[in-house]
Amino acid sequence: MSGQPLVVARNVSKSFGHVEVLKGIDLEVQRGQVVCLLGPSGSGKTTFLRCINQLETYDGGRIRVDGDLVGLEERGGRLHRLPDKRIAAQRREIGMVFQRFNLFPHMTALENVVEAPCQVLREPRAQAVARARALLERVGLADRAGNYPAQLSGGQQQRVAIARALAMRPKLMLFDEPTSALDPELVGEVLAVMKELAADGTTMIVVTHEVAFAREVADEVVFMDGGVVVERGAPAEVIGAPKHERTRTFLARMRAEHRA
Ligand SMILES: Nc1ncnc2c1ncn2[C@@H]1O[C@H](COP(=O)(O)OP(=O)(O)OP(=O)(O)O)[C@@H](O)[C@H]1O
Ligand SMILES: [Mg+2]
């Protein structure tokens, strides 16, 4: 169904040992929309993204992507963990880009992008190569296809990582602070690629400290602190006129750090 949101999270909770790091998170992402998650260090942003693509299990609540319960199935009124194969199938439909680029160091940019479609999706190699070239062009790296990660700047590596995630034709793209490990002068080129993806209708959840990016690109901004959603809404509201003191304090700190 195209009318329902692509992502629906309800009351998601997660503890590590005795520490509850997600305390009932709700989130909806409509198809083609961009949601930016902001929040201080330790607020649970990464953990929440990792629950959506099942790098972590969650303890309570429900996450649905495209109508399917993530990691679980309901049988006889009870929830059961899905078999690994089905979890792997669900994970293939979600692309994730991390703070660190995690490219395969012994493969060229092109090979990095070709690898998963060939190995996992069993795409014919010629077709995967053609698509990988098109994706590298899309992220502005057509001329770098033959370079190894060590021969690329951080911004270029991150753009290869984005192309690699897109090669799996994901329904949803998750970004976890994709620019925070980059030198400041390389941030813009990665944000520009993300802006284009957003403009092309890619559904994205972006954890970022780039407040200006969130303000410009997000359809909704969600501010988390201490494992809860403190405030959410249009960027003009949450960033432009935050209602909560915690949001204001966080934004003021971000602005101060950017000026520094
Ligand atoms: N594998 C783990 N085991 C134990 N505690 C964890 C684990 N992963 C995260 N935590 C804790 O969960 C809390 C939330 O961490 P998380 O990484 O989700 O925060 P974050 O909002 O992404 O922070 P940052 O902005 O620093 O990336 C933190 O207190 C963290 O120490
Ligand atoms: Mg994090």
TrEMBL record:
Compartment(s): Cell membrane
Primary location group: membrane
Keywords annotated in UniProt: Amino-acid transport, ATP-binding, Cell membrane, Membrane, Nucleotide-binding, Transport
Domain called ABC transporter: residue spans: 7-251
Bilayer disposition of the protein: Peripheral membrane protein
GO terms, molecular function: ATP binding
Protein family according to the UniProt entry: Belongs to the ABC transporter superfamily.
Descriptive protein name: Amino acid ABC transporter ATP-binding protein
Organism for this UniProt entry: Kineococcus glutinatus
UniProt lineage: Bacteria, Bacillati, Actinomycetota, Actinomycetes, Kineosporiales
